[in-house]
Design brief:
459 residues, four-stranded antiparallel beta sheet, mainly beta, single chain, 10% helix, Helix Hairpins
Length: 459
């Protein structure tokens, strides 16, 4: 199907039909409906509703949709729908931008950039408010609004809510009380650096044949070589070996700061810097009954419902984000490339090792989700659409006549709005969820720290 209607701005699938919504400001004021199989245009009245699927969470037949305002630009709207109704039966307002909505036993958890987490009942009544620690901070300028503590990231396991702001995590129960708090820097070992200072070249450095500002590794390397040539056990016939070995030992102790040997100059002064991790939370998700936390430094954590660390995995070097399927289940994690030649940065939860995204789409924010055997990748405001297989290879590359404004997937079909309405039939493309069995090191009790060198070897 290839329909020349440049006014189409958004498409979605309802039943066996494709609904195309016009771009604002065009002469076409209503939606246009086409049969998915034949591409034949039909009357919109044949469908129960041509409203686009609402974003939000449905609980017991009640759907919550929201329209968020920009940060610090006034209230946001919450709308409650009954079943598949197209008109809301109740509308509410929150004072600032909405950061996320998640399911709760009583209704919904709603995060707001005013610093509060709201407990909203199915009836639309407000059950409680939970304030992010430090949210009482009052910004002095509009730019500081973005740094006010708030439920910036939000996830729910159906009972409790997990809230994240920068590198801090809090679990909030269904009664609106804090269950526990955790910091990422407490889960990551601090980085320790040592600087060794010597005021001037010493005879100790000359004895080992190293420069005055040699590193500890260089000193140890030179010491091992000197011992081979001066140890009495290795040179029993040399009468001067004992004296030479004593000088080597004294020089080593002087340079490493273990003692100040007389006549060998000032001992090395060691300055140790302990730098705690400044990693922030990049995404939150739920796996089984545990929390999945991605960090800004390429680490993935699996925490219990009580906040205890169950597993830790080094995926990459840059910030981590997750890839979900159409059922919103996490199927892979992906990190940003931070070097010129990036190591593998895409890891499926049922794969033994990571793979590398293709050069055409190296960024995780290009990935739209997992459908059947493929990942869909699209750069914003671009004309290209890529289908990536599970080996990280570029399986299909599409180039549309104009910029892609909307994408939707049906069973085996891909529908694009890109200057024209385009429908493609692709084998292996299905929105049906595929069961994935999580494998180590994603399972409980695993700690896997992959270095960059090891990651490059897996390619």
């Amino acid at each position: 199907m290839h329909v020349r209607r440049p006014m189409f701005d958004r498409v979605f699938v309802r039943g066996g039909c494709v609904v195309a919504l016009p771009r604002r400001g065009t002469k076409t004021a209503s939606a246009v409906v086409f049969e998915l199989d034949s591409g034949r245009e039909v009357e919109p009245g044949t469908l129960n509703s041509t409203e686009p699927p609402a974003k939000g969470v449905s609980v017991d037949g009640v759907r919550l949709d929201y329209l968020s305002s920009p940060v610090g630009r006034g209230p946001s709207q919450l709308r409650l729908f009954a079943g598949s109704a197209s008109e809301p039966w109740r509308t509410l307002e929150l004072p600032d931008a909405i950061s996320g909505v998640a399911e709760a036993p009583f209704g919904w958890y709603v995060g707001c950039r005013d610093g509060l987490l709201y407990g909203l009942e199915r009836s639309g009544e407000l059950a409680w408010r939970w304030q992010t620690p430090g949210a009482s901070f009052r910004p002095s300028s509009p730019a500081e609004l973005y740094f006010r503590p708030s439920p910036y990231r939000l996830a729910s396991n159906g009972s409790s809510a997990l809230v994240a702001w920068w590198g801090s995590l809090w679990s909030v129960g269904p009664d609106g009380r804090t269950e526990w708090g955790q910091r990422l820097q407490d889960l990551i070992r601090p980085h320790v650096s040592e600087v060794r200072l010597r005021r001037r070249p010493s005879r100790a450095a000359h004895a080992l044949g190293v420069p005055a500002q040699a590193s500890l590794q260089e000193i140890k390397r030179a010491y091992r070589e000197a011992v081979k040539h001066a140890h009495p056990d290795l040179h029993p016939e040399d009468a001067t070996a004992t004296t030479r070995f004593r000088r080597v030992q004294e020089a080593y102790e002087s340079l490493t700061g273990q003692t100040a040997a007389a006549g060998n100059g000032a001992a090395a002064q060691v300055i140790r810097f302990v730098v705690p991790s400044l990693a922030t939370v990049s995404f939150l998700a739920v796996v089984e009954d545990d929390w999945l936390v991605g960090s800004g430094d390429g680490r993935l954590f699996r925490l219990s419902r009580r906040g205890r660390q169950l597993a830790r995995l080094r995926v990459g070097l840059g910030a981590l984000f997750c890839v979900r399927d159409c059922a919103q289940q996490v199927v892979a994690v992906c990190s940003y490339p931070v070097t010129g030649r990036s190591p593998p940065n895409l890891w499926f939860v049922d794969a033994p090792a990571p793979v590398q995204l293709p050069e055409q789409n190296p960024w995780p924010d290009h990935l739209l989700g997992s459908y059947g055997s493929y990942l869909l990748a699209h750069r914003p405001r671009a004309r290209d659409l890529a289908l990536i297989d599970e080996s990280g290879a570029l399986a299909v590359q599409l180039r549309c006549p104009r910029a892609i404004t909307s994408i939707c997937v049906a069973d085996g079909a891909l529908v694009l709005a890109a200057g024209a309405l385009i429908c493609l039939e692709i084998d292996g493309l299905s929105p049906l969820a595929r069961t994935r069995i999580w494998q180590p090191p994603f399972t409980r009790g695993n700690t896997h720290q992959t270095t960059v060198a090891q990651a490059v070897k897996t390619r």
